[in-house]
Amino acid sequence: MDPSVEKECKVFCMYLIECEPSQREIFLYKKALSDLKLDLTDNEMTIRKLCIRFPFLLKFADAGAALMMRNGNFRKRLIVMLSIVEASPDHCDKFIYDEEFRPKVHHFIWNGISSIILIPFGIFLIFFIKVFQNGK
Amino acid sequence: MENEVIIVGSGPSGIMAARTLVEAGVRVCVIDGGYKDDIYNAVTPDKNFTEIRKRDLDQHFFFLGNNFEGLGQENNKIGAQLTPARKYIVDGVGKYLPIMSDSFFPFESLAVGGLSGGWGTGCFCFSPLELKLCGLDPIKLENSYRLISERIGISGLSDDATEYCSRGLLKLQKPVKLDSNLGSLLNAYQKNKIKINKRNIFIGRSALALLTEDFDGRRQSLLDEMEFWSAHGQSAWRAAIEVERLKKYDNFRHLSGYVVKVFEENEKGIKVKALSVESDKEEMFVGKKLILAAGAIGSARIIMQTANKKVRTPILSNSYSYLPFLQWRRLGEYFESKKTSLCQLIMYLDESGKNDDVSLASLFSYRSLLLFKLIKEVPLNIRNSIPLMRYLHPAFTISGIHHAERPGEYKYLEWDGHLKASYHYSENEKKEFLRKEGLMVKAMMMLGCTPLKKVKTPAGASIHYAGTLPFSTNNEKFHLLPNGRLGVHDHVYVADGSGFHFLPAKGITLTLMANAHLVAKEVLHEIR
After folding, report:
1. pLDDT at residue B269 in the model
2. How far is the alpha carbon of B387 from chain A, nearest alpha carbon, in Å?
3. What does the pLDDT look like over A22-52, one tens digit per residue?
4. CA distances (Å), B118 to each of A74, B46, B115, in order?
5. Quick check: B515 and B141 in contact, CB under 8 A?
6. Residue B160, SS3?
7. SS3 sequence, B83-140?
8. What is the rounded distance in angstroms from the CA atom of residue B396 to the CA atom of residue B480?
9. Of A1, A47, B254, B376, whose CB count within 10 A is highest?
10. Is the pLDDT assigned to residue A85 strictly greater than 70?
11. What's the helix, strand, coil split of chain A in %, to 5?
C-alpha cells in the first residue's frame, strides 16, 4: 500500500481529535481502506494531496465534501478514521456522554458557528479543485 | 428418524409451528440455510456498553467488524441495525435467493432463526378488525397470542398503548425500565394527553420480547445496551433459542445448511428437493406433510419454482421512514449507563378510532450505534460535528414510522424462471403517508420535539412482508385456504404471512408466530 496512507492517517487523526494515531489505529486504518476499497477519484486525490501537504486545508475540504461530495470516498475515509478513533478506549472520552462529561454551552455554540463559517470556504475549495482538474 | 412433518425455515413462524408439533410427539424436521454468527457473539464481552467503550481495546472488532463491514454499504439508508454481529442474517441470500427489481429491496434470510436475529422484539396483537382484514380468525388468534407470549416471555405495561399492542396478554413481565430521554417524552405526553388524544394519537410503552425476569433458562435483561451487538443471556427472544431448545427432543431434527428449491407431492406425502450449501449438491427429503415457513417471499418463491410457470402474485410490505427529533428539554442532560437500545415507546395514530388502519412511530433513544453513524448524515464538517453530536445525542429521539399496507396494482412478485418484484405506491397512498406523518410530527412538536431530516427508505426496507399467497376459500393455485393449506394441495401448508390480505403497520412477528401455531394444529389434526 501507498506509504502516504500512514501520513494520511496521521493528518486525519490530528484533524479529527488533535491526537496522533497509535500504531494499532494506523494498522486498522490501512486495513479498512483495503477492505472497503475506498479508491479516490482524480479530484479527491488532488484534495488529499493538498491536505496532506497543507493540513490546515483539511477543515475546508471536509466542510466542502460534506455538501458537494457526500458519498465520495474522500469523506468516507474521514468517516473510517472517525469510527476507528471512536471505537477506541483511548479516545472514548471525546465521544461518550456520561455523568462525568460536563458540556459547555459556549463550546457547543462555537462549534456550530465554526461549522457554518467553514461551509463557503469549503465549497470554494472543492469547486476550485474541480475547475482546476477539468482544466487539466 | 422418519419425518412426519418437514418445516422449511427456522424463523419465528417455522420454529413455533415446530414447537407445537414436537410437543405433541410429531416427528419434525426443520430445514434452514444454516448461517449463523460464528465469530462476534463469542468475542463480544458480556458487559455494559459504556464499560466496553471505556475499557475494551478490541472493541473495534465487534463494533466495526473484522472487515469493517459495519461501515459499508449504507447509501441505501437501510440496515443501520445490521451490525457486524448480525450480518450473518443476510449471508448467502444474494447467491441463493436472488430477486430482480429496481423498486423493491427486501431482506431475506437463510440463517438459523431467520430474520428474528435482528428483530426489535416489538410485540403487537393485531386488533380483531385488523385480523379480519388479514383473513385471520380473531378468536383463534386471541388464544394463540396468549400461548405464544407464555412461550417467549413478553414484558410490558397496561397504558394508552395496550389496546394497540398487548391487549389480551395476561402474563406480562414488568416493563423494561424507561430511559430518561423517553421518560421525559412520556411525561410531556401525560401532561398534554387530552390535546394529543383529541388528534387521535396515543403514546405508550411498547411490549417487548425482552425479559425483565429470568425465564426458562434465559436471563433477564441487564440493560447493558448491547442488544444490537450480542445475545448474551438470551434476554431478547430469538428463534435460534427455540431451535436449540427443541434439539433436546428425540422427535426433532434440525437440518442446517440447505436451501429448499422445490417440492413434489403424491398421495402418500411430500418430497423436498434442497441444495446443500456445503457440497452444492441437491438432496431429497421425504415426509408426510410440508410446512413452508420461509417468509412470504421465500415460501412464494418455492411454490412458484415448483409450479415452474409464469405467474404473478401480490405482495405487501409496510412503508418505512425514520425521522429523528430533537427534544430540547434534554439538552445538557446525560444518559444513565443502564438502559436498553430497543424501542420503549410507541406513538399510534388511529384516525378512525377503530384500530383498523393505524400508523405508528416506534421511538428510540440513540447511543449504542455509535456517533459516527449520526455524524456521517450531518451536512457539516466532521471535526466540529463530533462535539455537536456528542452534546445533542441525549436529546435525540429517533422515530421509525410504519403505515398499514394494502394490495396494489404495482405491488407484486413475478416468476418466469427468475423471481422479479415490483413495488410502487399510488399517488394517493404517498399523499396519505405524508399527511399522516404530518399529524405525527405535529404531535411530537406539541411535546417539545423538533423534527430533523426525514429519511425515506426504499420499498422492502421495513422487513415486514405478507400477502404473496392470499387466503381464499376457493381452493385455487397460489392461494392459501383459511387453515393455511396451500390451494390444490393436500399435504402442503404455509405458516408465515403469505396469506394475509392486509398488513397492519404494527410489527408482524407475534402474529406470525400465533398463526403458525394454528397452522401446526391443523397439520397435527390431519396427521393424528
Report:
1. 95
2. 7
3. 999 999 999 999 999 999 999 999 999 999 9
4. 31, 18, 6
5. yes
6. coil
7. CHHHHHHHCCHHHHCCCECCCCCCCCCCECCHHHHHCCCEECCCCHHHHHHHCCCHHH
8. 44
9. A47
10. yes
11. 75, 0, 25
User: For residue range B172-193, what is the model confidence (pLDDT) as tens digits?
Assistant: 999 999 999 999 999 999 999 9
pLDDT value at B77 more than 50: no
State whether A103 and B391 contact (CB < 8 Å): yes
C-alpha cell at B448: 417539545
Q: Do B71 and A105 lie within an 8 Å CB cutoff?
A: no
Three state DSSP letters for B454-490: CEECCCCCCCCCECCCCECCCCCCCCECCCCEECCCC
Q: Report the residue of B75, B378, B382 to disrupt the A interface, i.e. the one with the largest count of A CBs within 10 Å.
A: B382
Which residue in B has a C-alpha nearest to residue A60's C-alpha? B381
Shortest Cα distance, chain A CAs vs residue B221, angstroms: 21
**Residues A88, B59: C-beta atoms closer than 8 Å:** yes
Of B384, B393, B394, the CB nearest to A111: B384
Contact list, A118 vs chain B (CB under 8 Å): 381, 384
B68 — contact with chain A (CB < 8 Å)? yes
Chain B residues inside the 8 Å CB shell of A111 = 384, 387-388
Q: Contact B387/A87, CB-based, under 8 Å?
A: no
pLDDT (mean) for B48-68 = 94
Over residues B142-169, the mean pLDDT reads 94
B387 to A107: CB separation less than 8 angstroms, yes or no: yes
Distance CA B29, CA B247 (A): 11
Contacts of B203 (CB under 8 A, 6+ apart): B160, B161, B185, B186, B189, B196, B345, B346, B347, B348, B363
Tell if the CB–CB gap between B334 and A99 is shorter than 8 Å: yes
Residues from chain B contacting residue A126 (CB–CB below 8 Å)? none
pLDDT of residue B203: 97
Provide CB contacts within 8 A for B426, sequence distance 6+.
Answer: B408, B409, B410
Which residue out of A58, A70, A82 would a mutagenesis test of the B interface target, given it has the greatest number of B Cβ atoms within 10 Å?
Answer: A82
Q: Measured between alpha carbons, how far is A119 from A65 in angstroms, rounded to an integer?
A: 9
Judged by a CB distance cut-off of 8 A, whether residue A13 touches chain B is: no
Q: Which residue do the cell numbers 382484514 mark?
A: B133
B219-269, pLDDT tens digit by residue? 999 999 999 999 999 999 999 999 999 999 999 999 999 999 999 999 989
Model confidence band, residue A97 (pLDDT cutoffs 50, 70, 90): confident
What is the rounded CA–CA span in Å between residue B105 and residue B103? 7
